[in-house]
Amino acid sequence: MKTLLIVYHSMTGGTLQMAQAASAGAATEASVAARLLHASEAGPGDLLAADGYIFATPENLAAISGLMKDFFDRSYYQVLEQINGRPYATMICAGSDGQNAARQIERIATGWRLKPIAPPLIICTHAQTKEEILSPKDIGSTEIELCTDLGAAMASGLAMGIF
Q: What is the DSSP secondary structure assignment for residue 8, as one 8-state letter?
């Protein structure tokens, strides 16, 4: 059985909804186990045990969240040269454009020599005021479907051995 590791952080619930949707999509593939872990709970052992990854983060101050950065900091050198070639995808819950957060994860994944299976999936909430930024998020059904499809595609690719 293959394992898809989904590591996420969420302050207002948007990224959590996206990660849960990806996990649900992956669950449609019987030969792939999806593991959904909060960034504070995930570490090098989880990366080594997985066959592919989805990294899901909010955009905070035009960057990945601090807890996602902490996850990468704790794990980076511990798995270096041991996960080369494994597939990954990125999901970002953004208030503006999410591009810098996507670039940050891409640089880390490049260092690990991971293989992207899709462009970063950026869901923009357009939250720009303090109240909008800090309020709980409700990701729309169209966007949730994109996350579900990404999880399903990743799981299918793992199951078929194309990733």
A: E
- Fold (CATH) for 2-160: Rossmann fold (3.40.50)
Tens of pLDDT, residues 87-139: 999 999 999 899 999 999 999 999 999 999 999 999 999 999 999 999 999 99
Q: What is d(CA 156, CA 143) in angstroms, rounded to the nearest whole number?
A: 20
Alpha carbons 87 and 89: distance in angstroms, whole number: 7
E-strand stretches of 1-147: 2-8, 32-38, 52-60, 63-64, 87-94, 115-116, 121-124
Exposure string over 93-121, b if 16+ CB within 10 A, otherwise e: bbbeebeebbebbbebbeebebeebbebb
Write down the domain spans for the chain: 2-160
Alpha carbons within 13 A on the beta-carbon side of 118: 20
